[in-house]
Amino acid sequence: MPRPRQPLTAKQELFIRMSARGEPREDIFREVFGIDLATADDKTIHNTDNTMSRWRKLPEFSSIWKEEVDKILMKHAGKAVRTIANLMDSNQPWLQLQAANSLLSYSRNRIYGDEQNAVHVTVEGMPEIGSPDDGREREPEPEDDV
Question: Is 8 a residue whose pLDDT tops 80?
């Protein structure tokens, strides 16, 4: 019979959050375990690495990791989009193209060319032109005579 899940300890949560933020290993050892890597012996380092490895396998790890990464992304997403948008105004065409491609690919759009060098942009989730929900006005369908 599987052992019931225990709630994460404060140390485990701190470890997960610091890992998700990409904190240096030295900082994690110091903040989470109170260990100075510069003076710790090999056995202590080995045992602590094993503990962190076990913690990474906990089911709760991925949900807290994702939550922390989402916070980081949300905090910086606006700045990233503004930076890319500013690069689109560059006087260097290759940089404009890279910025435009980055912006569209991150927003789940796709760019492709055809034989006539036309550029097509397909927006995921956008209706095809001519489909019933493309937003254009249509003539009402004639009613069938019964």
Answer: yes
Q: How much is the pTM?
A: 0.53
DSSP state of 33: I
Q: How far apart are CA 71 and CA 41, in angstroms?
A: 35
Render pLDDT for 14-72 as a digit per residue (tens, 0 to 9): 998 898 888 999 999 999 999 999 999 999 999 999 999 999 888 888 888 888 888 88
Helices (H), 7-142: 10-20, 25-28, 42-56, 59-87, 93-106
The pair of three-digit structure tokens given for residue 23, joined into one six-digit string: 């904190």
Neighbours of 98 (CB within 10 A): 15
In angstroms, the CA 131 to CA 49 distance is 57
Question: Is beta strand 119-123 parallel, antiparallel or unpaired with respect to 109-113?
Answer: antiparallel
As a whole number of angstroms, the distance between CA 42 and CA 46 comes to: 6
Task: Report the SS3 class of residue 145.
Answer: coil
